[in-house]
Amino acid sequence: MSRLRIAVGAFVVMILLQGSPGIGCSGPLAASSTSPAMESGPSEPAAAHEAGTHADAGGSAAGHADLGARLPLWSCIPFAGMLLSIALWPLAAPTFWQHHFSRIAVGWALVLAIPLVAAFKWSGIYEIIHILLADYLPFIILLWSLYTVSGGILLRGTLPGTPLANAAMLLIGTILASWMGTTGAAMLLIRPFLRANKARKKRTFMVVFFIFLVANTGGALTPLGDPPLFLGFLHGVPFFWVTKGLLPHTLLAVALVLGVFYAVDTVLCRREPAAPAPKKGERRGGVRVSGLLNVPLLLGVGAAVVLSGVLKLPEVTVFRGGAHPVVVPLQNWAKDLLIIGLGLLSLRLTPRELRQRNGFSWGPIREVAILFAGIFITIIPALAILKAGSEGALAGLVAAVHGPTRFFWATGSLSAFLDNAPTYLTFFNAALGELGAVEAMVPGMLGHVSTLAAHNPEFVHDLQAISAGAVYMGAMTYIGNAPNFMVKSIAEEAGIAMPSFFGYLFRWSAPVLLPVFVVVTVLFFR
C-alpha cells in the first residue's frame, strides 16, 4: 500500500509540474488555434454522445486543443490503470473485485481528476464537467433506456440451439444493427440467443462472436449503426454513402467471421450430447413474442437519437468558469429526457413477471455505469492528446498516417481502446487536410452532385478505410464499443464464464479478427 501511495504521489507531482508554465511541457503552452481535428464546425448533437466529441461552439474546442498540446503521454497512466484493473482484478481476486470494483473505479478517477484540477484549474474542471455532461450521461442514459426497453421484450418458445439456427440469429442481428444501432440490436437479441442455447455446455464462444457481429461489424452500413458513422453524417457524409461505400467490405467481413463461427459451432455441437426431446404438446421451433408494446418504444429511442442530430436549437450554458464555459445544445437535453421517459414508460407498462421470465435485473447496467464512469474520466488526457493532432504528444502518429492502409489500421487500433468517434473525426479531418479540402466539399468529393467539389477517388478510399476501421475494430476489446461490455455482463449474469479483458483480446478477437482485417486490407485498402 505504501508503494501505491508513493506512485500516486509521484503522478500528482508530475501533473502539477506539467501544469506549471515553462516546466516539463513537451509542447506549446497555449495553442494559438485549434488543430485540424477540432475544426469541425458547429457543436455536435447529443446523438453522437458516445462520440466524445468535445468540439462545442465558442471557445470550448480551443480549450480542449490547448490542454491536449500540453499533456504528455504519461498523463494517460490512470486510464491504463483503469483498463488493467478491469483486466487483472477479476482474475487475481474475483471476490474482491465483485465487492469493490466501484471503489477501484472511483479511485482511478480521483487519481486523474485531483491533479488535473490542481494543475490546470478551470481548464481541468471544464474537461471533467464536459465529459460527464456531454459524453457520459447521454451514453449511460441511452444504454439504460435500450437495456430497459429491450428487457421487456420476451421471445418464448423452443428456439433450437443448432449451428444453423445460431448462425441465422447472428445474421439477423447483424442486419438489424445497421438500422437500430449496435447497442439496440445487441440488447434486443442477446437474451433470446442465450436462451436458445441454454442446453449447450460451451457457450462462451457464442457470446464472443455475438459481440464481433451484432455489437460491432453489423453497424457499418448506415449512420444509425455506430456513433462514428453518425458523426460523419453530421459532417457532410451523405446518409446512404456508407451503405454503398462499405457494403462489399462488410459483406466480406461478416461472411468470414460468420463462417468461422459456423465451423466452430458445428465441431463443438457434435461433441455435446443430443438435445432433450420436446415436452409433450410442445412443438420445437415455435416462437412467441411477448411485450410487443416495447417495440414502438424501442423505435422511439432510435428516432430521438436521429432527431437530436437534425434539430438545431439554442445552446444552454451549464457551467461558467475560466475561458471556456460548458455548453450543451438544447436538443440534447430534449433527447435525453425523451429517452428517459420512454424507459420509464416501459417499466410502467411491462408486467414485472415478464421481465422476471426474461432474466432481467439491474446488475449488468449498474456495473457498466460504474466502470464506464471511471473510464470516461480517466480517458480525458488520451482524447485531448489525440484531438490536439499535430500539436499533441501523438503528432508523429497523426502525421505518419497517409493512404487507405494506414488510415484503416491507425483508426482501428485506436478505436479498439479509445472512443472510436473522436478517432474517426481526427483522421476524417486529416484526410481532408491532405487534399486541402473543407467540410462543405465532402458530398461532392464522395460523388454526390455538388458545385463545390468534383468526385475524388482518393478521398473516397481514405474515408472507406477510416469508417471501416472505426467500426470493425471496436470488436477487438470489451471497451471498443458501447454494447461489448454490456453483452459480457448479461452473459455472466446468465452463468456463462466470459474471458478476461486480455483473454478476450488474445484468445479470441486477435486470432479471429486480425486475419479477417488483413484480408479486407489486401482486397480493398492497398
What do these coordinates show?
The protein is mostly helical and 526 residues long. Helix content is 65%, strand content 3%. It is built from 23 helices and four strands. It has helices at 2-19, 60-70, 77-92, 94-120, 122-150, 163-180, 182-196, 204-213, 227-234, 241-245, 247-270, 294-310, 330-349, 352-357, 363-378, 380-387, 395-400, 403-417, 420-434, 442-445, 457-472, 482-493, 501-524, and strands spanning 154-157, 287-290, 315-319, 326-329. The protein has a two-stranded antiparallel sheet. Strands 3-4 form a two-stranded antiparallel sheet. Helix 9 (227-234) packs across helix 19, helix 18 (403-417) runs parallel beside helix 21 and helix 19 runs antiparallel to helix 21 (457-472). The protein is globular and about 65 Å long. The termini are far apart.
Query: Strand count, sense and closure of the main sheet?
Result: 2 strands, antiparallel
Element order, helices and strands? Answer: HHHHHEHHHHHHEHEEHHHHHHHHHHH
Helix content: 55-70%
The total of helices stands at 23
Q: Which oligomeric state applies?
A: single chain
Q: What's the Cα radius of gyration? A: 23 Å
- Average pLDDT score: 82
Distance from first to last alpha carbon: 51 Å
Low-confidence stretches: 20-65
Shape: globular
Can you count the beta strands? 4
Strand order of the largest sheet: 1-2
- Based on secondary structure, the structural category is mainly alpha
Sheet-strand content, in percent, reads: under 5%
